[in-house]
Amino acid sequence: MKNKQLLFVLVVGLVVLGGCATTQSGKESKELTETRVKESVDNRAFRISVDRVVPMSGRSRNVTSNYSLTVRNDSVFSYLPYFGQAYSLPYGGGVGMTFDAPLTEYNLRYDKKNNAEITFRTRSADDTHTFRIQIYPNASATIQVTSINRQGITYYGTVDLKEGE
Questions:
Q1: Could you tell me whether strands 140-147 and 128-135 are parallel, antiparallel, or unpaired per DSSP bridges?
Q2: CATH architecture, domain 37-159
Q3: How far is residue 84 from each of residues 18, 53, 59, 147, measured CA to CA in Å?
């Protein structure tokens, strides 16, 4: 009988210790993610992979292609889909939200919850765009784009935290 009780206590102890170890590594992982997100935002070197698009008038759409927005130093590399109404476009439809361009009026600030709020303007071949990006410590992100010749659109995704990016 004592052996069964001793075995029970050992098993319960191992389960409790294993649960504590998992919680600790989860906390360390969360802190590492927060640190890497902050570093990439502060260095103006981040890439947001987009998985959902919400046009101003229309329904939300999940996207499966490798759509992304990359900010590197003073440039933006936009490879984003566009669903919405265009007010004025060049013949052939223009470049839409797929372009590489320099940034202007770049502003970064952190709110009380340590969420990064980034705003900047850029000009593609056929339009001027204002970007408002919110990046959260858990690496999720929201991109709102307002253009002169198109309806506004919102993108949701995550910051890529792969080594070397």
A1: antiparallel
A2: Beta Barrel (2.40)
A3: 51, 11, 10, 11
